[in-house]
Every structure is written in C-alpha cells, then in structure tokens.
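Weekly structure sync, notes
Attendees: PL, DS, HV (note-taker this week)

Item 1: FAR-17a/AIG1-like protein
DS walked through the input record. Source organism listed as Acanthamoeba castellanii. Sequence as pasted into the shared doc:
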Amino acid sequence: MAATGWLRLGFHAVSLAVVAYSVVWLRQLGMLAPWLVLMFTMWGLATLGAFLCVALVVDASKLWAFTLQLHELLFALACFFAVIVTTIFWGLFFYDRELIFPRAFAFPALLNHIQHTLPMVVLALEFLALHRRPRAFFRHHPPVSLLLELSVLVGGVIAYLHLTAALYAKSGRWPYPFMSGFTFSTFLGFATIAVVAALLVSHLLRSARLHLHYAPPRKPE
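Item 1 (cont.): predicted structure, written out as tokens:
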C-alpha cells in the first residue's frame, strides 16, 4: 500500500474511533436514550460512522463496484448531514444557546465539538484531499446516480420529520427547544423548507464533488 493509502487508512480509523468514543461518552453520561433517535446530530454521526466503516473496507481491500457505490453514496449523505448539523447547530447556539440546550443542561464542550464540529472537519479533509484519486479512476467508477442519491437523502429527511411529527402527536412535545412554539401547521411549513433545503444543499454538494473529482483536467492554453 502506498504512503497515501496508509494515510487515508489511518485517518479513517482515527476518525471512526473518535466517533465511537463519543457514543461511549454519551453512555457514560447516561444520555443514551431512545429519544436520541430524534436528534438530527445522531443521524449525522451514524451516517459518518457508516461512511468511515465502508471507507476502511475500501482502503484495506480491493475496490469492489458495489462497495465503491455505497462508499460514494454514504459520502454524499455524510456531507449533507455534516453541513446541516454544523451550520444550524452553531448558528442557533451562538444566537441563543437555550434554543438548543436548556439553561440548566451541562454538556461537555469537547463532546459538543466532537458531535457538531468534527464531522464537518473530517469530511472537509476527505473532500478536499483524501477523497481525490487519479482522473482515470473516476472514468472507470462513475458517480452514484442523481436519482438514487436524492431518493435516499429525501427519504431520510422525510423519515426524520415523520418521527418528529409522531412524537408531537403522541406527547405534544418537540425534540428541540427552538421548536417549542410550533403548531402542527408551523411544523408542516418547517418540513417543507427542510425538504427544499435538503435538495438545494445536496445539489450544491454534488455539483462540487463532480467538478472536483470527476471533471476532466483543463488543457493548457
């Protein structure tokens, strides 16, 4: 394995270990509860963890067609979740911390950054450096189809919104403090905006990936 391959393998292994440690840390704090399934952050961590697992398989073995397609799909999804989680969480956090955490809730700062900053850092490095391969590689391994990528992405967002609506219908509560004033009609508007935003962010990320990783090199003038 070339030096770049070992670097990629080590990066993915360490990143996965940190993600796993954050889950262990949550358990030690007694915060691993069923309601966490409604935390968008956990969906992002789960997607990142799945991507890193598949990335390790790709790093350490032959590049099977199915594995590569799954690798590319999870990379796209992990990028989407990282962008949404990082921008929305920190935007609300700096605007008014209580929109995310109740005043009396003490959350470790390091764990906070592992969950809400690290995914963006890991995937930015992956996107800009480690994910890059020779142009010939991508000519033989085309990107995941747009229809499949959007279907999985929008399906995931709709599933999340459905679970959130089910929680409200059952208990009258929303998962986040900033949603406390929502009525069901407000939530439907929020859900519509969320799906449109998902499509827009996915389109921008896909365009950037195709341009950076798949576009032919410019010919010298």
